[in-house]
Amino acid sequence: MTKTGLRVVILGAGFGGLEVASKLSEALGEDVDTTLVDRAESFVFGFSKLDFMFGRTSAERVHLAYADVAHPGVRMVRADVVGIDPVARTVALDSGQTLEADLLVVALGADLDPSATPGLVEAGQEFYTVPGARAARDALEEFDGGRVVIAVTSTPFKCPPAPSETALLVHDFLTERGLRRSSSIDLVMPLPRPIPPSPLASEAILEAFEQRGIGWHPGSLVRSVDPARRLVALGDGSEMGFDLLLAVPKHVTPPVVVEAGLTEDGWIPVDPRTLRTKFPDVFAIGDVTSVGTPKAGVFAEGQARVVAAQIIERARGGTSDATYGGKGICYMEFGGGQVAKVDVTFLPGQAPFGGMDGPSLPNSQEKQEFGADRARRWFGRDWVPVESR
Asked: What is the largest CA-CA distance in the chain?
């Protein structure tokens, strides 16, 4: 029994789950019993998938093992969550174990459903998972020129800058291999601009596209893929040919979250200031929510700090006035080692707003330090994200 007797169960060890666990350990140590659950063996930064996909780093360097999570008061459990009772605050695992919580934090993220787009599994490459990035890397290595289409198949989707980053990095990749002159690159997105909350960033991206001859197709979705004819059917009824299709699949809430009755309109609604759900002592953070911010790790991390502050004060017998401000900073690759720092803020009832610094080489180093800092805090180890630039 811990000193407070407070049991915290965190489902999902992504940006949000890891940050809650580390903050609780830092402030309370063994005074609170924290259980962190994830089905994977290791954590991977989203940007590391692109680093791996374009040959900047190795598979071994991408992964940060959950076995290294050894914070005082935190128990790491590798298991699939097969049932959640948000009223009783109990969690069933595929191991047969049942976890009981005084405070429950749901941070299970968003799943991908490539099969939701007919023909995508047969003819396209998704690059939002590690296996997908590995397959895309192989496809790029084998590619000998032709039509490359980067396409978003549904909204919302994680890390809105990623498709634009991919288009710019494909340009560099093909240029380095002498294939750019014999190839075309097109980006199909449902958004009106690459990063709608940041006009500066969007303008810079579109200027970079124009300079590099990358086709930009806003306000359109890929509805289906014809593997035999190597064509994608777009939402406006037109078709686009491809030799290599890199796609962002439909994002969905994990089924166990839906079955628990936590969702409305596909995602978990929360108080945008406190991240509390409609169930007492149940929080939700990150991609699994409809909080109103982009589905990106930096936003989940910011939400996690607010949830952790509330739990810490609860353990100390008080209450916290911490609220979520909706701000996040994303690092975006422009190619050639140049990285922009995009900041955006989402406040309830207000239009989102943001700015941009760069792109520049110093921001590239700052981005790598961003990852290294979290590796130290969450995993207690040194980490060099990329082998070379």
From this structure: 67
Neighbours of 88 (CB within 10 A): 12
In our burial notation (b when 16+ CB lie closer than 10 A, e otherwise), range 39-66 reads eeeebbbbbbbbbbbbebbeeebbbbeb
- Is there a contact between 230 and 242 (Cβ–Cβ < 8 Å)? yes
What would the two tokens of residue 103 be? 């405070």
Rounded (10°) CA dihedral 346, 352, 356, 362: 10
State which amino acid sits at residue 138: D
pLDDT digits (tens, 9 = 90+) for 218-271: 999 899 999 999 999 998 899 999 999 999 999 999 999 999 999 999 999 999
Give me the half-sphere count of Cα atoms (radius 13 Å) on the Cβ side of residue 222. Answer: 33
Tokens 């700052």 belong to which residue? 366
Report pLDDT digits (tens) over 184-219.
Answer: 999 999 999 998 888 889 999 999 999 999 999 999
Give me Rg for the CA atoms of the chain. Answer: 21
CA dihedral 202, 208, 211, 212 (to 10 degrees): -120
Helix (H) or strand (E) holding 335: strand 327-335
pTM above the 0.85 mark?
yes
Q: Which two tokens stand for residue 18?
A: 């890891």
CB contact at 8 A, 297 and 89: no
Q: Quote the CA–CA distance of 261 and 172 in Å, as a whole number.
A: 46
Distance CA 124, CA 346 (A): 33
Residue whose C-alpha is closest to residue 210's, from 159, 182, 171, 166: 171
Backbone angles phi, psi at 15, to 5 degrees: -50, -50
Q: What per-residue string of b and e applies to 190-215 under the rule 16 or more CB within 10 Å gives b? A: bbebbbbbbeebbebbbebbeebebb
Compute φ and ψ for 103, nearest 5 degrees: -135, 130
